[in-house]
User: Fold this.
Amino acid sequence: MADGIEEQAGGAAAQAANLDRALTAEAVRTLAAAAGLPLAPGREAALLPILRAWLSGGLLLNASMQDEACRDLLPVTLFRHCRTDPGSP
Amino acid sequence: MQQATDLLELSLCEAAALVKSRAVSPVELVEAVLARIHAVDGRLHAYITVFEAQARQVARAAELMIAAGHDLGPLHGVPLAIKDNIAVKGFRTTAGSKILGDAVSTEDATVAARLRQAGAIFVGKLNMHEFAWGGTSANPHFGTVANPWNTARFSAGSSGGSGAAVAARMCFGALGTDTGGSIRLPAAVNGVTGIRPTYGRVSNHGIVPLAWSMDTAGPLARSAADCALLFDAIAGPDRLDPTTCEDDGFRQRWRDQQADVGGLRIGVIPGYFDRHLQPAVQGAVAAALRTLVQMGARLFEIDVPIIKHNIAAQLTVEAAEPSTYHQRWLHRRPDDYGDDVRALLEAGALLPATHYLQAQRYRSALRRDFLAAFDRVDVFVCPTLPFTATPLGATTVAIEDGVEEDMLAAIMRFTGIPSLTGLPAISVPCGFDGDGLPIGMQIIGRPMSESFLFGVAAAYQQSTGFHLRAPLLQAQAA
Assistant:
């Protein structure tokens, strides 16, 4: 994570500013509809500050994870093959 | 017969030894603990359910068995308490929620069953942050858990009841669960010891999940030695939890482990471990490091540049996984959640999948960097959290220059690191601030190195007395 990281960080900062403008109450309702989340009227106000914080942090993380040095990283998962699995020797 | 108050000052190891030698009866221990709960829990709200009748009944049976020479195990007759997201057969497991408020468990969680097999007596189930999704234990359904050192301050969380109950002598040890810090944070702010085990070292079967890829269960008690005794009972493979690891002989290694830090190589991360701390926390941890050096340890500065992203990754994973588990209730019973947890769950449902997966890839990177660093050091040492107990109900905290910041992100600054990497970490008391509030130090070890961590923590506790101090919590007038 070295060359290009500042450029990515700058890009992420621009994305965060864009997010701040784009993340409105209406956008939250759209996201909720896409996620199938039944959002009661007025809930957007409670969610907006949390989403702004989480999504802006996530954008910075995304930018750093696009670095060439991260290319081969696999996500942490829960899969583990056990001797008790059906078909195991 | 000893005075009940004297019995409550026994460590868990001492209580267990006295029961074995028949110097103390399990009935005496249980009565002392129940009396203490009656006396102080009205102000602390550490318990959700107290098993008064059953605990007495089991204590009488335990007394008869030990008199007959029948020793159930290393915890025979010792009163313990269990966080209320861990199933205990025949009692409700609320997870601190209204949604599971009447959910009676039909079987023990594996960890509860193992404590039972070791002879422990359960005195009750402990309060917590609702569904473990938060770090304050401000519970709208069962009351806010108060800190025994100052009942106007929080006990942290999510295992706030576990930390408060151990500190206030309302049990000899407790089980908690830890996803982003939920054992270590209450251990630190309540002045007790608590360990987050290596991911997979302790079964999660029978425990209400928060975030599957980070959830662990572990003990809180007054010392590292007490925690080791509990850990010894609960750790190990479980066919009911496929994420558990093969048995690697913890018992033998803990017995062989020396409480010694001579030659210990301690890693510190300059610019992260020593920054953005309340001055008292910075001073206490620096003093603890000096103590460890005087005892023969050596400090090594380690550079982990990507560590700065750990909170974003932690929040992303800890948001997305609970929102997935809670979909069924979030869609049908949203009004039954407390305001804060409902908002966190609803927001977590809206995160992009790419954010979650990049956070999971980041965990691989962070783990890679820490495992590489363990070629040069044996442990990392840092504060458990950057501040001491905040006022009850606070959702923000001032760490530097009076600037208020979001509690949830601030509280996980250091505990998130072992959570993301799956590494074990123990929190031990290392001092007090000017208001007499406890400060915790986190020691992070290699995977499966719990016995080693207990040895380091026990050595530190043999040289210091912070873990021996008790809160001056007066009993309530009847």
